[in-house]
UniProtKB/TrEMBL annotation:
UniProt keywords, alphabetically: DNA-binding, Transcription, Transcription regulation
Pfam families: HTH_1 (PF00126), LysR_substrate (PF03466)
Taxonomic lineage: Bacteria, Pseudomonadati, Pseudomonadota, Alphaproteobacteria, Acetobacterales
Source species: Gluconacetobacter dulcium
Domain HTH lysR-type: residue ranges: 1-58
Domain of life where this protein originates: Bacteria
Protein name: LysR family transcriptional regulator
Molecular function GO labels: DNA-binding transcription factor activity; transcription cis-regulatory region binding
Family to which the UniProt record says this protein belongs: Belongs to the LysR transcriptional regulatory family.
InterPro entries linked to this entry: LysR_HTH_N (IPR000847), LysR_subst-bd (IPR005119), WH-like_DNA-bd_sf (IPR036388), WH_DNA-bd_sf (IPR036390)
Coiled coil (UniProt feature): none
Amino acid sequence: MTLEQLRLFIAVAEREHMTAGARALNVTQSAASAAIAALEDRHEVRLFHRVGRGITLTEAGRLFLTEARAVLARATAAEHVLDDLGALRRGTLRLVASQTIAAYWLPALLAAFRRQYPALSVDLAIRNTEQAAAQVHDGEADIGIVEGAIDDPALAHWPIGEDRLLLVRAEPFPDTPLTAAWMQQARWIMREEGSGTRSTLNQHLRRLGIDPDTLDIALVLPSNESVRTAVEAGAGIAALSSLVVAPGIRAGVLHAVPVPFGPRPFFGLRHKERYRSRAAEALLAFITAHAGIAPGQ
């Protein structure tokens, strides 16, 4: 049974005339007659009484007319949904981001995006970098934005923003330059393994000739806020995003030291083989335009 057969049946039934129904849909009378005969033969039921040159609905035909109209109405509604999705008049975008990005970098961008596309919903999940990549890989999220590099051949990744790690503690740092020996003797507060902050810090330390495994790590905590709070309480030093520590530095409860960590890129993630929706395209284009980063993949 096809939608075209249903349309022809309804057109003929409403007019109780084969030629008039066919004309209404711009098909030949023989095509309309063949479509209705195919329905009747397939289901072994007569939909019309054929008396002389006239036709009228049988009881089965009257019952079927109600159902056929309902099916076509649902098909029309489904077409409207696809039209709306294509025109960004509706839809939900599943986004996953690592903690620093989700808490400090994305909110203003998402608020502005919603003002431009008020009919689109964004469902944001917060995970560490490895967990976010896994969600994109498994199809649980359409787009990911993370702080650390990802080694997964199934995922495309490209720079989409950046911040900078700052080394902070509760007391002012000495005026003399910090040495590798000083950092190895210091007590550290760390994010958990798998976080973008932890992996980026480890890369910077190795470039400075410091083995991260030799550090005196007092605490390993699962969020930026818990690390920052522990540092503010005097538990040790930590490397955190400039976005995370800026309020504490302004308030005088944290102090930073200029260590040459350099900028830290944020990466967009998508699965190479999964369909990217119009909503995902719109969000990536919006972030690219507002973050000043070259367009991604």
